[in-house]
Amino acid sequence: MKESKQNDGPRPKEEKKVQSDSDGAAPLSRKEFEKHLRKLHVELVKLQEWVKEQGLKVCIVFEGRDGAGKGGTIKALTERVSPRVFRVVALPAPTEREKTQMYLQRYIPHLPAAGEIVIFDRSWYNRAGVERVMGFCTEEQVKRFLATAPAVEKAMVESGIILLKYWLEVSPEEQTRRLKDRINDGRKVWKLSPMDLKSYDRWNDYSRARDEMFAATDTPWAPWYVALSDDKRKLRLNVLSHIVGRIPYKKVKTPKVKLPKRKAAGGKQALNPALKYVPEVKFG
Fold it and tell me: Domain for residue 284, yes or no?
């Protein structure tokens, strides 16, 4: 395979405002979505093998409002690759000890080593978003973070890390629909945290925080890429396509695999009657 072309996504500084409208096209059918997703999964496996062989270090940051689709996008990205290569980091709230550390300190140990792709499901940008809007840090701490983050990210990139930062942008109407869905769907209630409810009425505060974050940290060495997320299927295909397009890779040559013949059993082997089997449930 030829090296993938690097196609830049939308740059927040080049836009007058962050768009949240759909493109007006008809939604993808599940069949069409799965066809494209399968092709992307094949490319992600090729990328994985290239990262391992070449010892590349990749760091992917996902940020966005509650309900923007981060979890589903990360699942689509990782469901067909090795968790030993594609490692997801979703840190809990800081401990009392971590609160006394330099802010970025607890994130640094999770950065990728050679042959790894680390995905941050929320990242150090918590300080510029959730922590700022919800009053968990001071404005002085926010200003210090926004001044420091570009330099830290430059050091990351200069050390050989390929850093990709994605902001998933959801409309207020779609966010409301998704949060209500979490309330009413027993499979999704775990996704609705008390923080989601507290932050729901602070849409404009989050918008201002996002715009200031873009202005301070959208740099040539670590730009932000905005992905519209009202259509989840298109979001996932767009982001996965962008990732394989931003990291040049080639298909790693592997030997052809052929299953060996099984050795013949020396007589009949009875099942162990002491084993406990899972009962078969009758459906329908």
Answer: no
| Residue 128: closest CA among 215, 58, 196 | 215
Structure tokens given for 161: 């890390």
State yes or no: pLDDT of 3 exceeds 50: no
Distance CA 83, CA 95 (A): 26
**Angstrom distance (rounded) from CA 140 to CA 105:** 18
Q: What is the pLDDT of residue 21?
A: 45
Which tens digits make up the pLDDT trace of 146-178? 999 999 999 999 999 999 999 999 999 999 999
Domain presence at residue 268: no
Question: What's the predicted TM-score (pTM) here?
Answer: 0.86
Contacts of 58 (CB under 8 A, 6+ apart): 51, 112, 116, 117, 118, 161, 162, 164, 247
In 3-state terms, what secondary structure has residue 246?
helix
DSSP annotation of 193 reads: -
Q: Which domain holds residue 137?
A: 12-170+202-246
Longest dimension (CA), the chain: 77
**Contact assessment for residue 119 and residue 87, using Cβ atoms and an 8 Å cutoff:** yes
Give residue 197's pLDDT: 82
Residue whose C-alpha is closest to residue 11's, from 227, 209, 243: 227
Domain CATH code at residue 212? 3.40.50.300
What's the DSSP call for residue 230?
S
**Would you give the DSSP letter of residue 137?**
S
